[in-house]
Write a structure and sequence with these properties.
This protein is an alpha/beta fold. The chain has a single domain, classed as Glutaredoxin, CATH 3.40.30. It has 5 helices and 7 strands. It has a 7-stranded mixed beta sheet, covered by helices on one side. A hairpin with a 4-residue loop joins strand 1 and strand 2. The longest helix is centred in the first third of the chain and has 17 residues.
């Protein structure tokens, strides 16, 4: 019984120590987008950012993405951006651009082929995985996985962050 309790405590502490903390500053990074252009997270400072980790082989990711596109289209003029981070490695990265174009997604998509950014924000490499960053560049929410209906909660969080006063 005590072993099980200790194992559970170690698991919880391990997750807590490797998961980004809420209200902690976002860690800046630079990656190439699907067109080969350099994209830096910091260029979106002052906007509400949904950092969405996904992969072309991830079924729940593909299920979530149309909802992210709809939210992006609805809120982008208010200062919202979905920055989609493909976790596809060198073997599957060539599938990302055709997939994004075929589906008509218009949010920015960057490639994290070596998992450097994924390792920073999502060390367990759970997919899909989203980090919601406020205009103040602080982590506001973390979402792991996707279940139908999650998009309603995420939309409410985005709208709330967009309504908050802009930092000076």
């Amino acid at each position: 019984m005590i072993r099980m309790a200790l194992a559970a405590l170690v698991l919880v502490l391990g997750i807590a120590l490797t998961t980004p903390a809420l209200a902690a500053p976002a860690t800046d990074f630079t990656l190439r987008d699907i067109n080969g252009e350099s994209v830096q997270l910091d260029q979106y400072r002052g906007q509400v950012i949904l950092l969405s980790f996904w992969a072309t082989w991830c079924g729940p990711c593909k299920e979530e993405m149309p909802h992210l596109q709809a939210l992006y289209e609805e809120q982008k003029d208010q200062g919202f951006v979905v920055l989609s981070v493909s976790s596809d490695d060198a073997r599957t990265a060539s599938r990302v651009k055709p997939y994004i174009r075929q589906k008509g997604y218009t949010f920015p998509v960057v490639l994290d082929r070596d998992s450097s950014v994924t390792g920073t924000y999502n060390p367990s490499k759970t997919l899909p995985y989203s980090i919601l960053i406020g205009r103040d560049f602080e982590i506001a929410q973390i979402h792991s996985g996707y279940n139908p209906g999650d998009e309603v909660k995420i939309k409410a969080e985005v709208v709330e962050l967009l309504a908050a006063p802009k930092p000076e």
